[in-house]
Design a protein that fits this description.
The protein has helices spanning 146-149, 217-223, and strands spanning 2-7, 10-15, 53-61, 66-67, 71-80, 89-95, 100-106, 115-123, 128-137, 154-162, 165-173, 177-179, 189-191, 195-198, 203-206, 228-230, 237-241, 247-256, 259-267. By secondary structure, the chain is mainly beta. It folds into two domains: 53-162, Immunoglobulins (Immunoglobulin-like), CATH 2.60.40; 165-267, no CATH class. The protein is rod-shaped.
């Protein structure tokens, strides 16, 4: 049971278990029964929606394989998928090979639901195969994106930088043969039915991890240091330097007895 009382000019409620009633005239029987007021409905607290910057797409130009000594651009599409505007922020990456830093600031920020593009550019001097290079939106954590928004600012890209190819051909030797892969009139490779040998100053060497698709010019320069590759298996990827100093890559496509067939490319010096 609850009792309603007047306390300091206001209505208050107190439970009867804490009240002692002195009523020798039994006047409490004449007291009215007061209905308790309805439980108030709590009002919702308005939470300000946070911005959320993401990268939705990256377009490479030229596309992979990217030639050296040519202006390269990565066009990055950004979106604010959050519920409020984002202020100033930066987008950046460090391009490989060469550790080339590139960044763009967006001083006007990005409104809620809006999309924009920025371009990061560079010129590569070295070659290499690049996997999962991170492009970062909101590089300096200038935008308060909340717990979820701070975890989705990275977009990974993969590509290869390589020199232009002068020639790409296929060879099939049924038995022992000498050949001129570089096409300069001097034989530079010999097959004896078992071993592949570089001749007349040419060099070869086995790539330890690259395949024909990922092998590149600088890797061939570093790998072509031997003259003999004994019993090359199908699937092997071989670096090659011609007798006149041009580099290339050979892929052994098949072996059967003394027969061998392979695909190769020679780079423009």
């Amino acid at each position: 049971t609850w009792l309603v009382i007047q306390f300091r000019g206001q209505v208050a409620w107190v439970t009867a278990q804490y009240v002692s009633i002195f009523d020798p005239g039994n006047l409490q029987l004449a007291l009215p029964i007061v209905a308790a007021p309805a439980t108030p409905t709590p009002s919702a607290t308005t939470v300000q929606a946070e911005p959320d910057i993401i990268i939705t797409n990256v377009t490479l130009a030229p596309s992979s394989p990217i030639p050296t000594n040519v202006l390269f651009s990565a066009t990055i599409t950004l979106k604010n998928q959050g519920g409020s505007a984002a202020g100033t922020f930066a987008v950046a990456t460090t391009f490989l090979p060469g550790n080339i830093y590139s960044a763009q600031n967006l001083p006007a920020g990005l409104g809620a639901g809006q999309t924009t593009t920025v371009v990061l550019s560079t010129t590569f001097g070295a070659t290499g195969n690049v996997n999962n290079l991170a492009i970062v939106a909101d590089l300096n954590n200038e935008v308060a994106e909340g717990a979820v928004g701070e975890t989705n600012n990275i977009f990974n890209i993969s590509y290869k930088v390589d020199r232009a190819v002068q020639t790409e051909q296929v060879r099939n030797y049924a038995a022992a043969a000498n050949d001129d892969l570089s096409g300069n009139g001097t034989q530079d490779i010999s097959w004896d039915g078992t071993n592949l040998t570089a001749i007349n100053g040419a060099l070869i060497g086995l790539f330890s991890s690259d395949n024909y698709a990922t092998a590149h010019y600088d890797g061939a320069v570093a790998t072509a240091t031997s003259t003999v590759f004994a019993n090359p298996p199908a699937g092997a990827t071989i670096a090659f330097r011609s007798d006149d100093g041009r580099y290339g890559v050979i892929r052994i496509d098949g072996r059967s007895g003394t027969q061998i067939n392979f695909t190769y490319r020679i780079y423009i010096p």
